[in-house]
Structures are given as structure tokens and as C-alpha cells.
Amino acid sequence: MRSVRARAALGATVVVALALVAAGLAALLVLRANLTDQAGLQAEVAARETAGQLALDVPYDRLETGDEEDHPVQVTDEDGRVVAVSKDLEAISGTGTDRVTPQPPPAAPEKPEKPEKGDDDDDRDDDDDGAGAEPGRGEVSTDEPDFGNGTATVDGDRADYRFASVEATDSAGLTLTVHAGAPLAAEQRAVASVRAAMLAALPVVLLVVAGVTWLVTRRALRPVEDIRREMAAITASEDLSRRVPEPASGDEVARLARTTNETLTALESSVDRQRRFVADASHELRSPIASLRTQLEVGAAHPELLDVEGAVADTVRLQVLAADLLLLARLDAGERPGNARLELGALVREEVSQRTGDRIEVAVVVSEPEPGGLEVTGSRGQLARVIGNLLDNAERHAVSSVAVEVRGARGGVVVAVTDDGAGVPEAERTRIFERFVRLDDARARDDGGAGLGLAIARDVATRHGGRLTVAGAGERGARFELWLPGPR
Prior knowledge:
There is one protein chain. With 488 residues, this protein is an alpha+beta fold. It folds into three domains: 1-106 and 136-235, no CATH class; 240-335, Helix Hairpins; 338-485, Histidine kinase-like ATPase, C-terminal domain (Heat Shock Protein 90, 2-Layer Sandwich). Helices cover 47% and strands 18% of the residues. It contains nine helices and 14 strands. It has helices spanning 4-55, 122-126, 185-237, 252-301, 308-332, 344-353, 380-397, 441-446, 453-463, and strands at residues 73-76, 82-85, 89-93, 139-140, 146-154, 157-169, 175-183, 340-343, 362-366, 375-378, 402-409, 412-419, 467-472, 478-485. The strands form three sheets. Strands 1, 2, 3, 4, 5, 6 and 7 form a seven-stranded antiparallel beta sheet that branches. The protein has a five-stranded mixed beta sheet with strand order 9-11-12-14-13, with helices on one face. β1 and β2 (82-85) form a beta hairpin. The longest helix has 53 residues, at 185-237.
């Protein structure tokens, strides 16, 4: 089942069906319990009425048991013998004995002789404990009766009953138990009617739930289908400028559409950068390759005219450009920096010491913090490349001085490279970190720059968890600050 709407409708229907079945069973149980309690109360009333007659010594054959069909009665003595039953009672179960034929009672005990008048009044005094008892009457137990279910056959009709058992004591001290029943037919009919109504309504309710869920889900998923259709069209057309429709509902689907459009925007920007990068790289490679080819062709035709130094310079330029492009490709691919611990002060001195051919001497100032205060974690080769690129940029634009300062700051290490050149206009301080961007294209190309040095430096700094910024250096020049976090 691949349709979300079908799965949602089926799931909702199953859940509602289970809930309705559980609720129906609970309702039936509660209804049955209430009706059974009502039948038990009727049985208790009938049993106490008969027990009251026994307490008054009404003969067994003259007991009034009311409607025998509605309230069958069975009376047993202490030994479980049946001493009385209601009229037309033919069979019974659930009362402890299934006998319905009364048995003759045992011989009554002899009553004690009454004391003669004039006897000692002390006898009357000795009977003070029974002063509250009414002579010639028994009593009915006030304890909670016992209840149970059973059957009874009255005048040929067999039915289910709720029986209540009440004890009574006659004036002779004989304890009798009255079992009186109340019919459960009304309870059974009510439960059967409710059950039938529930079973009849269940399919209708489930069909309504399934239909409503199908329609609601269809309406809710319509924007998703619109998003899918538009994404398919974008994929087919390769037009990343298109956007999916955003519903005005503000719900999860609207957020999905918004996120999809943001992803498309980022993807379009990435593809545009990639295209510009390829175009710029092709352009930058075309010039030295064309120059080198021209020189070699001239040299092949006229060896005496071969410019060996120019060919070597173009080859070096190609090598540097190829190395820069390869490093950028590795950074774009997500290459992770190394985990070596480096001392930036020593790394800067080493890089400066290797720059013997620069036209301007670089002044290096390294602060002396606590031991390990200038250490960072990362790739030695990539960080050396960053420092070299910053020095190249400063030396290219400086008039007479280039200075490097290394110090600890803000939980990391700062390398500041300052020159006294023309500086960077404030409006261009973000743009210069883009690839193949040169503020003076003609001069930069003549000097061998391709506009990748600062872009590489910024990307390497970002990969190491740091940042690279540029600011003015007073009245003249530029100051590039590289901040890297301390060892991890």
C-alpha cells in the first residue's frame, strides 16, 4: 500500500474500530452490572418479605411469595432441607440445592414450663438481658445478603434469575434461609438490544471515519503533491531558479515548502559559484597556456628567439594555479584538517625565513605568552599556505613595509599581517575573499595573481574553526587578522 492517504485512512479506521469495540464492551459491562444490581435489589426485597413472614411464625404452607413467576422462592433450614417453595416452582439451580419438594420439619423442641405466680421475682430479674426481645417473634438477619445467578423453572417456563439469600430466625430459634429470585430477562434483552445496535452502527461509523480521513488527508497532502510535481519539473528542466509553491497555512507542509525553497536557493547559488569557478579557472589557465604555447612554437621555428625565462615563469604560474585549484577542490569536498599541534610563532618565523627573494623585508613580532599559549591544532601544510598567501598579498600591495604579529587572544591565537599599501575599501572587504576576485585585475594578473590566495586562506581558516578578517591599518594600508582556536 504505497498511498499515504490509503495508509492514513486504514490506520484511522483500525484505531477507531478498536476504540469503539473497547468502548462498546465497557458500556455493555457497565449496563449489565447495573441491571444485574437492580435485579439483585428486587430479589433482596422479595427474600426479606418472605423472611419477615417466617420471623412471625407464618406456617410454611401459608407463605405469601408474591408473583411466583417473577420471584421464585425456596426456603431451607439449617441442615439444607427444603421446607417451603413458591407455587408452581418445578426446578431451581444456583441456591445451593436443586430440590423443590418441601420436606417435613423435624419435631419441635418442648417448650419450658412457665413459672407459677408467686415464684421468686428473682427469675424475672435474671431475665433482664432479654428484656428487649418481643415474646413469640423471631428476627430477620440484617447482614448483607448473598447473591448469585441461577435458573428456575416455573409452570414449565425456564428462565435465568438473580438470587438473594436472607436468613431468618423463628420464635422457636430455628434459622431458615430464604432464596428469592428476580428475573434477568430484562437485563438480557437490554444488553442484546444495545449490542445489536452497536454492531449495526459499527460498519457505518467506520465507513464514515475512513471516508472523512481519506478526504481530509487528500486535502492536507495536496500541497505536498504540488511540491513534488514542481520538484519533478525543476529536475527535468534543470532550472534552479524555479521555486515550489508555499502554502499560506503555516503548518508543517508550509515549513517543508519553505525549507525546500531555501535548499533550492542554496543549490542554485552553489551551482552558480561552481560555474563561475570553472569559467574563471578556464580563463586563468588559458592565458599562461596560450603564452607558453606561443613561446614554444616560436622557439621551435626560431630557437634563437626562445624566451626560456618566460616559459619557466608561465610554467610556474600554471603549477601554482593548478595547486590552488586542487586545494580548493579538496576543501569543497570536505577535507578535514589534521590534528597536529603546531606553534604558530615558530611556523610564521619559518615561513618568513624562506622568503629570501621578496622585495620588502618582513618584520616579525611574536609575543611571549605562557608555555603552549601560541599552539593550535590543524594541518601544518594548510596553515603554512594561509600564512604564505597573506604574506604574498601584503608584499604585492605594500609600499615599503610588511609586519607580522603573533599573539594569544580570546581563547586562541591571532596572526596579524599589516602592510602600508593602498588598503582595501570598506565596501570591498567581503568581496576580496571570493574566488578569482581582484580589485585591480590588470595589475594582479601581470603580477601573477589569480585571485585565489585570500579565498584559500579564508576557507582553510574556516575549516580549522577560525576566521580571517580585514581592516584598515591606520591612515594607510591593510591589516589581515587570522584567528585560530587553541588546541582541542
